Sequence to fold (370 residues):
Amino acid sequence: MMSNRWIFVLAGAGLAIGAGSAVYYSVEKKAQPPVFNPAQNPYGEGIYANGIVQSDQESGTNTAIYPEVAGTVRQIQVREGQPVQQGQVLAVIDDSVQRATVEQIRAQADAARTSLDELKAQPRPESLAVAEAQVDSAAATLKLNQDSLDKLQSIYGRDPQLISKDQLDTAANTVKVSEANLAVARRQLELTKAGAWKYDIAAQQQQVAALDKAYQSALALLGKYTIRAPVDGSVLSVQTTVGSYVSPQGTFDTISGTNLPIIVMGGGAAAQLSVRCYVDEILIQRLALSAATSARLFVRGTDINIPLQFVRIQPYVSPKIELSNERAERVDLRVLTVIFRLTRPPGVQLYPGQLVDVYIGKPSAAGARP
Fold:
């Protein structure tokens, strides 16, 4: 009997709690005011689009700088936000190995050029003197042997018993050998006087030309280790540091785990920016863009809105993956890229890479915002 009483007590308490909770949660609470007012369409028939702020350039987007060679960063000579001019040094990669290669090829080219000069300078006076002396020596030897032969023949003519036939033949053969040696010495003198063979000179000239080109190529590659600004502009982001390894794929970002350009540059004046908008393909037919087109940018999380000036259309409809650059993003939605230009008002914090809301359309008197 006692346990049944407790059951009824607990059941009654549960009913009371349930009824109280129902009453408490049924009371309508006053909505909290929003932290900021969302962007409102200022045009009677405005088209909404996502946009991303970029530096103002005649074509393309921001300039992503990748090195053309691999190596360790030795110097960073610019800072973020710094204006730079075309050709100004941005960073330097360690070039010790390539510099040694350049010096080696230069030395080889100098050696080949010296060899070519040597060929062109032939005959050397010393070589010519040696060849002439060899002719004189061969001529003197021939005269000596000829005199000996003449004497033997004279004796043999007076008394054949005094000179043997073998001695006479040996002396005659010695004279013939001396005549041949003199002919060889004279030919050698002519060869020495002629200088280097034209084909040897041509081959050496080609060798010099090849080494000169190799030197120029190595020197040009050496210049790639000094990264310079390709255009006038400003440094938006430096994404590497001294001691980091970089390559033509960029620099490894330890946060995202991807390769990034080592430096990102923007063009134009600091106050001059552009906005790249992405208009849904189903809204393209409603666009009527011209120099008189009205458009406004809204900075997210604020009441700031800025008028825009139409610049151009990128005439290519592409999957909408540009904003996040994530391949997992929806690609069944395709967008048309429209570029506007704006002048940043004083005191407004607006930077390249910032996402904004953009409305495009003809202003209406009822819906226009100040």
